[in-house]
């Protein structure tokens, strides 16, 4: 039995059609079912549907052989014990810094700034590389609010169309990372289940 960990939410919406294209369908609808484990039309393949942030952890410890998760989640996890097999090119967006419109063009190198983000590791790496002294404040959502109420000078968040930033009078500044969904595998599963995983990778690659 092979287990694939799928990220719920917006990634799942784009994952299911991709799986269908390679002949894999879940027997229950994960958007309406309360199940966590889903049988598929293949006897030797099941899916677990979990939070995106948990997918790398399930795969790292072998609770799932494969996973589908955003690069943002992978960067935060660190990738230990995982192999990144394929860029699925779905749920594409960019991890960016953003500041209030009034702060555009202000120098940040001469002071210590406060940055609100869910992406602590990626942000730390970014500001360090830029030589900017940043105090990172971890938030779990609505990062856009932080600069508006004086919690932070800027944010690091995902940007797709830019309309969320715009609605909050924020302006995207620098690119931290290009983000898209990746197929990941447990390192041991790669050896034990090599044949089946290689076949799935080939099939998915054809439909990207
Ligand atoms: O609970 P948690 O927030 O951790 O995750 P979730 O269950 O809400 O996941 P969900 O469904 O939001 O999906 C998250 C994953 O989708 C991310 O890990 C990315 O890999 C991917 N993704 C792609 C995005 C976006 N695009 C995206 N635009 N995740 C979030 N957004 C948000 C962003 O945070 C911001 O609030 O959309 C807003 C920006 O969109 P625009 O179009 O206004 O720029
Ligand atoms: Mg979300």
UniProtKB/TrEMBL annotation:
InterPro entries: ATP_PRibTrfase_cat, ATP_PRibTrfase_CS, ATP_PRibTrfase_HisG, ATP_PRibTrfase_HisG_short. It comes from the Bacteria. It catalyses: 1-(5-phospho-beta-D-ribosyl)-ATP + diphosphate = 5-phospho-alpha-D-ribose 1-diphosphate + ATP. Residues 51-205 form the ATP phosphoribosyltransferase catalytic domain. PROSITE patterns: ATP_P_PHORIBOSYLTR. Pathway: Amino-acid biosynthesis; L-histidine biosynthesis; L-histidine from 5-phospho-alpha-D-ribose 1-diphosphate: step 1/9. Coiled coil: none annotated. CDD domains: PBP2_HisGs. PANTHER family: ATP PHOSPHORIBOSYLTRANSFERASE, ATP PHOSPHORIBOSYLTRANSFERASE ATP-PRTASE. This is ATP phosphoribosyltransferase. It comes from Arenicella xantha.
């Amino acid at each position: 039995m092979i287990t694939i960990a799928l990220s719920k939410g917006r990634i799942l919406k784009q994952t299911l059609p991709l799986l269908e294209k390679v002949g894999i369908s879940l027997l229950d609808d994960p958007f309406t079912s309360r199940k966590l484990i889903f049988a598929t039309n293949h006897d030797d393949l099941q899916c677990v549907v979990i939070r995106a942030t948990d997918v790398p952890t399930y795969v790292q410890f072998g609770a799932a052989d494969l996973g589908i998760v955003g690069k943002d989640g992978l960067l935060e996890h660190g990738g230990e014990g995982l192999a990144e097999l394929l860029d699925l090119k779905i749920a594409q967006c960019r991890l960016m810094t953003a500041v209030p419109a009034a702060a555009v063009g202000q120098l940040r190198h001469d002071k210590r700034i406060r940055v609100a983000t869910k992406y602590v590791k990626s942000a730390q790496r970014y500001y360090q590389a830029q030589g900017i002294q940043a105090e990172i404040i971890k938030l779990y959502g609505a990062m856009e609010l932080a600069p508006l109420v004086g919690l932070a000078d800027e944010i690091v968040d995902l940007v797709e169309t830019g309309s969320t930033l715009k609605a909050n009078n924020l302006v995207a500044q620098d690119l931290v990372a290009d983000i898209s969904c990746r197929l990941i595998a447990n390192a041991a599963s790669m050896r034990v289940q090599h044949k089946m995983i290689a076949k799935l990778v080939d099939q998915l690659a054809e439909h990207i």
